[in-house]
Amino acid sequence: MDRIFIRDLELRCIIGLYPRERRRKQKVIINIVMETDLRAGGKSDVLEDTVDYKAIKLEILDFVGKSRFQLIESLADGISAICLKDPRVQSATVTIDKPGALRFTRSVAVEISRSR
Questions:
Q1: How many CB atoms lie within 10 A of CB 14?
Q2: Structural domains in the chain, sorted by start
Q3: Alpha helices, DSSP H only, in the chain?
Q4: 97: which of 43, 44, 72, 90 lies 20 to 30 Å off by Cα?
Q5: Longest dimension (CA), the chain
Q6: Do 75 and 13 touch, CB atoms closer than 8 A?
């Protein structure tokens, strides 16, 4: 299976359990791996024959910007669902880092994998 990577998508959203976390948007860093078959697009060189990762990114930007989840697990699950809307995407792995979530750490992250 071939893969499309969206790396280090840095966005801001309301995320967290505690009142201080819900007052203003926080930075999250999102990495996505989508498994698909890229042969048709590779041969034709036509966007319609492959996964439009720009369109997926734009939908993720809108989704994350409007989200108000408590858990990054929930945010990751929603992002994976966006990726799987394209029937060519067979699976999506989403990793979300939340910098500064714990003292003395660079970040905390979750990674989920979803498939058809």
A1: 17
A2: 2-115 (3.30.1130.10)
A3: 39-44, 53-66, 72-84
A4: 90
A5: 52
A6: yes
Q: In this structure, what token pair is assigned to residue 27?
A: 């930075």
d(CA 10, CA 80): 16
Cα–Cα distance measured from residue 15 to residue 26, given in angstroms and rounded to the nearest whole number: 7
User: Residue-wise pLDDT tens for the chain (116 aa)?
Assistant: 999 999 999 999 999 999 999 999 999 999 999 999 999 999 999 999 999 999 999 999 999 999 999 999 999 999 999 999 999 999 999 999 999 888 899 999 999 999 99
Residues 6+ apart with CB under 8 A from 110: 72, 73, 76, 95, 96
103-115 residues labelled b (16+ CB within 10 A) or e (exposed): eeeeeebbebebe
Residue 28 tokens read as: 């999250």
**Phi, psi (degrees; rounded to nearest 5) at 66:** -95, -10
Q: How far is CA 52 from the centre of its chain?
A: 15
